């Protein structure tokens, strides 16, 4: 070990370290909690608008799960082989060096901090819709209060914050299963035989599949906790694929339950199919019940994101991209100082209202991170063939190149759908990247510290 690495290792130990106390149950909860949100309540209407075939509707949701499993292969291999806080940032640094890792950091900074603000604001909107505060409090203040609450929960320690996520994800899953049971217990809809398979050709089917893919989004968050999960070589792949398949089971059951009480024609074009389906059972109480689920669902994701984004902020600080003070870890395993940055930044975004534009800007460029993760798999297979890989991408290299083709196709589609925001997202990320490099050159290059394996135990 050279002198620089020794010094960095000593600094890591002196500032505390993350605790390896999270198990596979937390990993599964992190995936399920990140993925299941309001999308499953809205997306079925878009899918039914593309096809009147119940069989094809269900098949599209299964296809979405399989495609996400394909996209998760690279994350599983690198998450198991390089279990470090920061996930994609750590992968890019190992495979391509500091400058590419900095680009990933810039994309993640914009995309994830703004999404945290968006999620917290939505929690506030749901609370206002429930009548909390009697109309005297604006949703942005509820959103900031939610951030403060979840920051407090996370400050209590890794064990408590992890347990809270397991609890919230479990309750969220049970609520959806309860909805499925209630809908199946109701009288079935009268369906005419021979529903129209393709309502408007193959293009709407492609749109439906794209919507389904985004409804599964969020599974990658579990790789952020590589330094905190026990036996990451086994836990991370199990959590990724087990979580995606578990969500797929819930999604398929929810769609089957909706199809039990509504015809595809009734579902088609609905902006909130779940409300239409639940209305058949709960009447006027359906909106109240689904709004309560919204608070639970989005609140659980926000809680997880506070925990998640704290880890990559900590990883950036440890690498020298942010002030070293943010790389301090308390005895209970929480990088409290690192947690303050995303919470404060998200609160500012909420007050300025800029989060919506930032989320739109980052949506397309975030796919570049996925492409770089797969590129890192390929690069490290060539440069470090002896790197211990507890999980290896099956059918390599065919499977990893297939995932790349899917990602490139999605990138082209997203750019074609919204060229202005896509271009702006690339410009903003590149500007942050170039600006940081210029400042670093003027003040001295950041060290991007190489953390020795023994410091991550």
UniProtKB/TrEMBL annotation:
Annotated source species: Aurantiacibacter luteus
Sequence intervals crossing the membrane: 21-41, 56-80, 101-121, 141-158, 170-189, 201-219, 240-262, 288-306, 338-355, 361-381, 393-414, 420-439
Database matches in InterPro entries: AA/rel_permease1, AminoAcid_Transporter
UniProt keyword Membrane, yes or no: yes
Keywords: Membrane, Transmembrane, Transmembrane helix
Any one GO molecular-function label of the UniProt entry: L-amino acid transmembrane transporter activity
Location relative to the cell: Membrane
Name listed for the protein in its UniProt record: Amino acid permease
Entry superkingdom: Bacteria
Membrane topology, from the record: Multi-pass membrane protein
GO terms under cellular component: membrane
One Pfam family matching this protein: AA_permease_2
